[in-house]
């Protein structure tokens, strides 16, 4: 006879790293349609021939719409590549499928010049850097230095393929001030267009956070209902506080107060940090100041530290791809619910 208790214990002992299987039964992903389109950008005339043109600097959106969708569109905004939203580090379920299974429309965004929107209006260049793999390891907070993993890191450290996949899945990234403007220009047009619906929540990673905040200051409609940044490097500030704008791609960005106040109109904003990001890190300090200024003008912005709030330890710079991403996603469930963003389109509750 099989001793169920022993089986359970054995199972538990071999799965200490990864999250336990979801408590709700896995439902199939049922879609009504998928597709993609580009948006924003310019049509440039040929410098000499008036009858020739170039269409360039648009962004690209790929969408997945559930059969019975909830009303909120989750726009997944990467810094490194769309891949980080597609799978967990060990190949397990990523945010894209997790939230499709929960019936949220999912949108994958490539800003102008990156990924599938790489037709630029200007010459661009790519210079191979032979230190990139080492730099990725530390920047993504897998550990303090290359191949020195944090002891509790939520990454399958013994899986060489997982590391190889993580470091190779990158696009060329343009971390310049001009590129932040370029991305947010196109994204603001997309937000106001109604093509992503009228309840948009941006989920961002790293440099995508600053771009989503700038987008919000540029959009004129009320379609942007939430921003959840995972380890955003770079923040936006109003011009009535003594903050000097940065000259690079990681801010600070300073905008007129009237535009900054648009962030205070967004129903919910969360700036999320992993436990290996110390309180005195420049971006953590900036996130606290930015949140307090948003709230000063009537907004609802919070700094969330995964380690303190949920005891989530060993988070990387990309916590939604971590082995613990089920628990990180549960936090997003709560955020959507708290802000009334989890409702179904037609009012039906299909849960
Ligand atoms: C544009 O004009 C040039 C010069 O007159 C001509 O060679 C070219 O074929 C034209 N292109 C189109 C698309 O009509
Ligand atoms: C290792 O990671 C790769 C890439 O994510 C994945 O395809 C593979 O299944 C993983 N292997 C194990 C044993 O988890
Ligand atoms: C919002 O309105 C301003 C003022 O009319 C305009 O300059 C800007 O282009 C608009 N933004 C978008 C995204 O259309
Ligand atoms: C503004 O900040 C600068 C640099 O931090 C400082 O030198 C200056 O005294 C500040 N001005 C005010 C009015 O606080
Ligand atoms: C942050 O605090 C730690 C611990 O007190 C200290 O060792 C480190 O130098 C500080 N870093 C910065 C950037 O101030």
Nutshell version of this structure?
The chain has 351 residues and is of the alpha/beta class. It is built from 11 helices and 12 strands. The chain is 31% helix and 19% strand.
List the helices and strands and how they pair.
Elements: H1 4-14, E1 31-39, E2 42-45, E3 53-56, E4 59-66, E5 73-77, H2 83-86, H3 95-101, E6 106-110, H4 132-139, H5 160-168, H6 177-193, E7 200-205, H7 208-218, E8 224-230, E9 236-238, E10 253-255, H8 257-264, E11 268-273, H9 282-296, E12 301-305, H10 306-309, H11 325-338
Low-confidence stretches: 1-16
The CATH topology of the domain at 65-120 and 154-338 corresponds to Rossmann fold
What ligands can be seen in this structure? Answer: 2-acetamido-2-deoxy-beta-D-glucopyranose
**Strand portion, in percent?**
15-25%
Tell me which oligomeric state these chains represent.
single chain
| Secondary-structure element order, N to C | HEEEEEHHEHHHEHEEEHEHEHH
Query: Could you tell me the number of beta strands?
Result: 12
Helix content: 25-40%
Structural class assignment: alpha/beta
N- to C-terminal distance = 37 Å
Work out the radius of gyration: 21 Å
GO molecular function: hydrolase activity
Keywords: Hydrolase, Signal
Protein name: Alpha/beta-hydrolase
Organism: Westerdykella ornata
């Amino acid at each position: 006879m099989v001793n169920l208790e022993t089986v359970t214990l054995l199972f538990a002992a071999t799965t200490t790293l990864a999250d336990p299987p979801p408590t709700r039964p896995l439902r199939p992903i049922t879609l009504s349609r998928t597709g993609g389109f580009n948006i924003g950008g310019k049509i440039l005339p040929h410098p000499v021939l008036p009858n020739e043109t170039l269409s360039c600097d648009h962004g690209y959106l790929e969408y997945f719409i559930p059969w019975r969708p909830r009303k909120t569109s989750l726009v997944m905004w990467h810094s490194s590549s769309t891949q980080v939203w597609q799978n967990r580090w060990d190949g397990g379920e990523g945010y894209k499928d997790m939230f499709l299974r929960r019936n949220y429309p999912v949108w994958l965004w490539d800003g102008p010049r990156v990924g599938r929107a790489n037709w630029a209006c200007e010459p661009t260049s790519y210079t191979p850097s032979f230190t990139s793999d080492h730099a990725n390891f530390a920047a993504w907070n897998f550990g303090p230095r290359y191949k020195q993993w944090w002891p509790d890191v939520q990454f399958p450290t013994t899986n060489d393929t997982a590391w190889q996949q993580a470091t190779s899945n990158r696009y060329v990234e343009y971390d310049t001030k001009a590129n932040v403007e370029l991305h947010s220009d196109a994204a603001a047009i997309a937000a106001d267009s109604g093509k992503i619906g009228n309840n948009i929540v941006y989920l961002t990673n790293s440099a995508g956070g600053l771009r989503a905040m700038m987008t919000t200051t540029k959009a004129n409609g009320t379609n942007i209902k939430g921003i959840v940044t995972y380890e955003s490097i770079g923040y936006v500030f109003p011009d009535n506080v003594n903050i000097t704008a940065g000259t690079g791609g990681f801010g600070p960005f300073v905008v007129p107060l009237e535009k900054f106040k648009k962030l205070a109109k967004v129903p919910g904003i969360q700036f999320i940090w992993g436990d290996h990001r110390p309180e005195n890190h420049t971006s953590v300090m900036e996130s606290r100041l930015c949140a307090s200024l948003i709230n000063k003008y009537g907004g609802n912005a919070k700094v969330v530290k995964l380690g303190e709030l949920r005891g989530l330890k060993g988070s990387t710079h990309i916590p939604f791809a971590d082995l613990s991403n089920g628990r990180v996603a549960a936090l997003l469930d709560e955020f959507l619910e708290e802000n009334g963003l989890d409702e179904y389109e037609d009012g039906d509750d299909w849960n």
